[in-house]
Amino acid sequence: MKITYGIHVEIAQDNNDIRYMITEDGIPIQDACLWLDFISVNSYLTGERYAYALLRYFRFLKANRLHYRQVTSKRVIEEYIKELLGLGEKVINYESRLTFTALNTYITVLKSFYHWLEDEKKVSTNPVLYSSKRTRQAPLVNTKLLYGQIWQFDIEETLLSRVTYRRKRNHLKWYSEQEYKSIQSNLPSLRDKIVFVLSVETGMRIGEILGLKIYHFDPFNPSLEIVREQNIENRSQAKTTERTLYIYQSLAEMIQTYMGTERSEVNILELDYLFLNSKGKHMGKPLKPRNFLRILKNAGEKAGLTKSEIRTHSGRSSRAQQLVELMRDHPELGITKTFINEELGWKSERSIQPYEKGYSMQQKRKIMDRIEPVILEKKKGCNYDEN
């Protein structure tokens, strides 16, 4: 039986607003709740993830009769992380069930929380040697000891560097044309095919797709409106900028067909969400990202792909790579970096860089085909001059 020490995450919901709180014996922990409100401004999903990470830390402190404001030793953080890993005092040659990425998330939460406490002047001041890993030149005073130590916390510099972490999973970066067609043909319903095609043809995130309402679709000027809404019913949220995406006529016709057939048959709750569950106890409710991921993985497996490598984000990556290749190969189309950034809702110009660095095998083949006659022509010219 899991010991909770009376500390829980509780959810307060008002219409389409949601708030995460950490309580002890039913009483909100003020600092934690205020901080969660602060970091949930842009996304309640971040608030949820951070709330459960901080909950685990608070329970660890309660088990060791510590208060978060009383922690002044880096050793406490190390012991906490060893508990996360299930290590106790055994840190050598252990295959952890927790990935390095997940572990880093727990540390990030602590950094953010104590940074906020520092800004709010809720942590006692203590001299520390360095305030951050980026400034290792002179001792700083009047800095919160714990935040300084957590900020400096580097797993590779501690005993925990001897822990063997589970390897990061490989994921399918983007689809080939054959993979795209094969997955689409193995999806079980028109709804699922449309969601998949939308991801590949528009580059929308799965949260943006499943957050679509019927009034976001314009069949007369085929387009979709991406709006930043909470959508707490299926936890789908747009993380990128709000924008209008124009879609192909063929895709618009697929959506209209779906709305008049599959969707109308299951819309028993009369909801506005475009994509609804079609069976079971959740019939009529909006489709959730994790449910579509399961459907996509099954279709990918039937298409001959490795199930564990399938992810919903591959459609978005495929669209990004396609646009970059078209920009290179067909300048007459007028595709620019600005156009790609606007299509994908990217705010930073650096987002396109991973796609610009590499050339696909098809592009390399085309380039070699163009180079070959030039090289051969030069060789002929050299032979002629020698004679």
From TrEMBL:
GO terms, molecular function? DNA binding
Q: Give the top-rank taxon of the lineage listed in the UniProt record for this protein.
A: Bacteria
- Provide the alphabetized UniProt keywords: DNA recombination, DNA-binding
Coiled-coil regions in this chain? none
InterPro entries (UniProt xref) = CB (IPR044068), DNA_brk_join_enz (IPR011010), Integrase-like_cat_sf (IPR013762), Integrase_catalytic (IPR002104), Integrase_recombinase_N (IPR010998), Tyrosine_recombinase_XerCD (IPR050090)
Q: Report the Pfam families cross-referenced here.
A: Phage_integrase (PF00589)
A biological process from GO: DNA recombination
SUPFAM superfamilies (UniProt xref): DNA breaking-rejoining enzymes (SSF56349)
Protein name, please? Answer: Site-specific recombinase XerD
List each copy of the Tyr recombinase domain by range: 170-369
Q: Give the family, as the similarity comment puts it.
A: Belongs to the 'phage' integrase family.
The reply to whether DNA-binding figures as a keyword in the UniProt entry is yes
Residues in Core-binding (CB) domain copies: 35-118
